[in-house]
Amino acid sequence: MKNRMMRMPEKGRFVEVEEEMPKASGSNVVVRIEYCGICGSDMHFFQNGAIGTRKAPPNFILGHECAGTVIEVGESVKSLKVGDRVALEPGVPCGECEFCRTGKYNLCPDVHFMAAAMPPTDGALRQYMAYPEKWCFKLPDQMSTLEGCMIEPLAVGMHAAMRGEAALGKTVCIIGVGTIGFMTMLSCRAMGVSRIIVSDALANRLEIAKQFGADVTINAKEQDTEAAVLEATDGMGCDIVFEAAGSPYTLKDTWKYVKRGGVIVNVGNAGGEVPYLFGELARKEADIRHVWRYRHIYPTAIDAVSRGVINLKDINPTVFPFERSQEAFEFAFEHRSEVLKTVIKIF
Ligand SMILES: [Zn+2]
Ligand SMILES: [Zn+2]
User: Residue 271 pLDDT more than 90?
Assistant: First the structure.
């Protein structure tokens, strides 16, 4: 048996290559990857060959949103058996540093994260990969591996909602409802927030957000977002503001939308310098919190999806077969405003 994978010799081009099968040893298992979602970061690498200063190494394998079936287990694996379906958490931290030991393993400086350039770590756009048992999370019978591959972006949104302390009684505002804003919205809803305001420059995204339970939608192209947020909140602003557009232009305005004593969550992680009126933020004594990936979220996210608290089926991803990965990436880029998620079906 051979292992087929999509390698990227240069930006914008994949070649399908055949390599040796991975082996399960120790506490590793071999997973047959069934679905791999395309993330914004993958698209950056595909389009530009880099994210900011972080260059994709030659022959990189993209993809970190994946799920599949265990086909082989190492001799010391205890929690998984052949045939188990799993979602893979794509970051493997060192387990030894201060951050790992205190539970903030997403801040580990030595994490190996799939399809990240530093340190260069190959991703999941391949048929089989060996992976530590500890970072493979079993999916319940009623959950598909297609849903399983969407746990990763959901985990980002859920971590953001937790960082913001989303809860019953709160009004939240989500700036930008692409995949991450959308996952943040689903998480906020599941965590019981009372009111969800969303803002985006694309009307079709607002339409989808409305279908999924947004209470107020603001078209940032046609409306003044600040005025609309204040109008919707009786001039108070929101308890939690999520910046999920990943743009310096929207990030710099977040202080305008937050309630006094409220929280701003930067989940979009805009690059570059952002001019910010901290004085205005101080006047409101509002916090800004950041989100770097997630930690300890997979079990909660899988449970929420399997019990129907969060419905990922409605994301309705566009699915391409493995052989057409190149086309899938081109499609994901061209249709990034209409399509919430593009997924590659490997098996
Ligand atoms: Zn992702
Ligand atoms: Zn560590």
Answer: no
Residue finishing a domain among 275, 290, 305 = 290
Report how far ligand 2's centroid is from the alpha carbon of 167 (Å): 31
* Residue 283: CB atoms within 10 Å: 11
Spacing, Cα 178 to ligand 1 middle (Å): 12
Are residues 14 and 145 located together in one domain of the fold?
yes
First to last CA, the chain: 15
Residue 244 · residue 174 · CB < 8 Å:
yes
Tell me the CA–centroid distance for residue 57 and ligand 1, in Å: 19
Ligand 1 centre distance from Cα of residue 242 (Å): 17
Does some domain include residue 63? yes
Element holding 291 (H helix, E strand): none
167, amino acid identity: A
Residues around the ion ligand 1 (C-beta < 5 A):
39
Domain of residue 197: give its range: 155-290
Residue 138 has pLDDT above 90, yes or no: yes
Tell me the ligand closest to 109's alpha carbon. 2
Q: Which tokens sit at 53?
A: 């200063």
pLDDT in tens, 297-316: 999 999 999 999 999 988 89
> Ion ligand 2 — residues with CB under 5 Å?
93-94, 97, 100, 108
Length of the chain in terms of residues written: 347
Q: DSSP assignment of 80-125, as one string?
A: --TT-EEEEPSEE--SSSHHHHTT-GGG-TT-EETTBTTTTB--S-
Q: Are 126 and 1 in contact (CB under 8 A)?
A: no
Q: Give the type of residue at 207.
A: E
Residue 295 lies in a domain: no
d(CA 215, CA 80): 42
263 CA distance to ligand 1 middle (Å): 24
Give the pLDDT confidence of 246-269 residue by residue, as tens digits: 999 999 999 999 999 999 999 998
Instruction: Note the ligand closest to the C-alpha atom of 42.
Output: 1
